[in-house]
Amino acid sequence: MKTAIVTDSTAYLPPQIIDKLNIHVIPLTVTIDGQVYDEEVDLTSEEFYDKVRGEGPLPKTSQPPVGKFVELFESLKENYDAIISIHLSSGISGTYAGAVQAGEMAEGVDVRAFDSELSCYVQGFYVIRAAEMAMEGAAPDEIMAELAEMKKTMRAYFMVDDLAHLQRGGRLSSAQALIGGLLQVKPILHFQDKVIVPFEKIRTRKKAMKRIADMLAEDAEKLPLEAAIIHANRPEEAEAWKQELEERMPDVNFTISYFGPVIGTHLGEGSMGLGWVKRKA
């Protein structure tokens, strides 16, 4: 039985991984000054941050139309018996719901949608594992069971330079944003019950990053891990942090990724994140 793996552009997977593992990606869109871009297709991360720097209105982000999902699923059924569609958290986007709806509309193919309950490269961890298993011939039930198992050890924390983006985009409550602004804190954020909430309030960027690293170190003592450093247009800082973390935790496999246009719209430039999951045995 052949299974296709689908995800959305917010996993921000490198093209070489997408090609090597035969992953199918459906883009979300970002609208800047009336111009609509498919992220990762019409607009790179670097171009996005260049365009939105300054005082202009916040770009608008949109999930893929259900019709795009149906079109993709219908085309995949020519060569596949099943499709597993892995998406960013249903608490911040309707993309997962769109995949579910399209799966019910696409005839003659078994579609399973999976809610990652987070986003970015940590969502990508699920996608990569699923694609590797699909290439080895694993059945859809087996792959879905593995994704559920991964969820038990999946962790992701991030900090933003300015809470205004999250508040204006409706992804964090006004009261929480106001408190952060008044105290000039750098709260550590995470996904809880599929939405973004504060985890801890920390005074400085440096201390916030250290706290996240300490949590990774704690888990790394118990489990073999793979981790992703995720940055919003801060490649040098991400590289420096990677070197520091690798020296401290040589047994953890680190990757550097980024917050692309859609997620970057809500977090803002300068955000940094760290996510990890138990490494495949």
Walk me through what this model shows:
The chain has 281 residues and is of the alpha/beta class. Helices cover 41% and strands 25% of the residues. It has 11 helices and 13 strands. The protein has helices at 15-20, 45-52, 66-76, 95-105, 120-135, 140-151, 164-168, 174-183, 205-220, 235-248, 261-267; strands at 3-8, 23-26, 29-32, 35-38, 60-62, 82-87, 110-115, 155-159, 188-192, 195-200, 225-231, 253-258, 272-278. The chain has a 6-stranded mixed beta sheet, with helices on both faces. β3 (29-32) and β4 (35-38) form a beta hairpin. The longest helix has 16 residues, at 120-135.
Proportion of residues in β-strands: 15-25%
Overall 3D form: globular
Count of helical stretches: 11
How many strand segments? 13
Mean pLDDT: 92
> Which residues sit in consecutive blocks of at least 5 with pLDDT less than 50?
none
- Helix and strand content put the structural class at alpha/beta
Largest beta sheet: strand ordering: 10-9-8-13-11-12
Observed structural traits:
281 residues, alpha/beta, 6-stranded mixed sheet, 4-stranded parallel sheet, 11 helices, 13 strands
